Amino acid sequence: MCGIVGAIAERNITAVLVEGLKRLEYRGYDSAGLALFNTEGALERRRRVGKVAELERALAGEPLAGRLGIAHTRWATHGAPSENNAHPHFSGNDLAVVHNGIIENHEALRERLKGLGYVFSSDTDTEVIVHLLDHKLQELGDLTTALKATVAELHGAYGLAVISAKQPDRLLAARSGSPLVIGLGHGENFLASDQLALRQVTDRFMYLEEGDIAEIRRDSVQVWDASGRPVQRETVQHREGAEAADKGEYRHFMLKEIHEQPSVVQRTLEGRLGQQQVLVDAFGPQAAELFAKVRNVQIVACGTSYHAGMVARYWLEELAGVPCQVEVASEFRYRKVVVQPDTLFVTISQSGETADTLAALRNAKALGYLASLAICNVGISSLVRESDLTLLTQAGPEIGVASTKAFTTQLVALMLLTLAVGRARGSLEGAVEAGLVEELRRLPARLGEALAMDRTVEKIAELFAEKHHTLFLGRGAQYPVAMEGALKLKEISYIHAEAYPAGELKHGPLALVDSDMPVVTVAPNNELLEKLKSNLQEVRARGGELVVFADREAGLDNGEGTHVVHVPHIADALAPILYTVPLQLLSYYVAVLKGTDVDQPRNLAKSVTVE
Ligand code: F6R
After folding, report:
1. Would you say 5 and 200 are in contact if contact means Cβ atoms under 8 Å apart?
2. Who has the most CB within 10 Å: 37, 222, 375, 508?
3. Which UniProt keywords apply (predicted)?
4. In the CATH hierarchy, which top-level class contains the domain 3-237?
5. Whole-model pTM?
6. Would the pLDDT of 75 be above 70?
7. What spacing in Å lies between the alpha carbon of 168 and ligand 1's midpoint?
């Protein structure tokens, strides 16, 4: 989604803003721009459609320098990607705003402002903010006071950064539904929608909370909360993670992140396993008491995180004996749900800022759930702050838009949840838990072995480069793994891919199978294997080409039209985690062969903070 960077300093901050935008590129965008209070005492801007590199080129041709400025990468919601719709938006020549989020009452405000004589030059909802702010500034005389009066009239979601040539001693920020963080320097301060954008200038951060307004000066920061009271927000220091924005030896962030999985899974397990059991306190001090009461689990998430939830349903019902429902957040939030007594409400999210998942959590609070638990990769996210219990995945920043290491660490966290809930309820045998704890300890090594299949999968990818459609099949907990494999392939290679439970094949999709439709399947050696083999025969009998990721003991080997890749053996319960890896590698190498933009696929954004 959109990204914001701002700075106020005694030096020229153009390079800081551009570097910040580059670090936000991974979030997805279609245009970029910046505005500076220049050395002549006026506001000046450059905006370009396309990548930040286009903006950089424009700045090389027509340089801009200044000590106060704001910058933005836009992901179009209202109005097509165009230079006019790119941020910053101006009112007159002396007021500039950048905005993340959506203003829901923009039409009514636009009509009112037109009536007051304002002329609009874009199709965006954002432009109403800057004109309304200008109107308030004329009435009230002070920029900070005017911003407070402006946000009081906005409905919807916003993260805002504001500068004015009339009061160039300050950079203003306002947050409601869209994250903002202040970066603290020495004699200079910064603002961004994600701390990663500022790691080159500081490691000290102050996170704004919902409803906060901040006045950022060179050597001070003043924050007011939603009720207008001055507040002190905590300063946190991030010493690690600056290297996350670097691809290192890898060609793409996605490949780097796939290869990080053994270490981030290890980190996600650290401090959470006892000798023979999961340490329930890892979920929070009240977790043991709450988990003992759990009679149902409702999981809500989007996209890849939803697929993790789908896997967890198999685990929670089979291992912990708890009924579990899983739903995509965009449906759940608008549905009238019937809540069973003692239901634990679980959200799963890499970013913790996904608008639909957050809204689902907020709605759930009024519905009488036992408690809410967030499985999330970002400790300071809204989802974590607003949930009763939390288990953080330790994947580190995920830059590739297509989620990889976040998914596998979510699965690890969900297995920990399954074991903790099963034990607390007395529905999981100690020996079963001890066995799985042992298997979890071995998981990082198994993932390392799975990554050694890299070259083999690269070769298999050639089968897909010229194809337009694929089917992914799986049974049991491998069905959501197939869904995740299909999602990865379509996201980054733009090949149409659909996932089916293998048993559904003959109920319809078999009609599609021919030699132009490769069928990918995951086949661990479990009690569903023989059933799956019959489904594979159905494909072969119709001339369909098969790619099978199979356990060595599964009795599946290469044959005409059948390409088998052997996956290291693993306990069946953990197989969904391991079998995800070759599917990630497959989509990666197909995309590389097709020459698509692997890390920033078209039309997609990393953290979906709008509905
Ligand atoms: C797919 C992908 C998305 C996200 C979805 C939810 O590769 O990354 O489907 O999983 O947008 O995002 P989070 O997990 O941040 O809530």
Report:
1. no
2. 375
3. Aminotransferase, Cytoplasm, Glutamine amidotransferase, Repeat, Transferase
4. alpha beta
5. 0.78
6. yes
7. 39
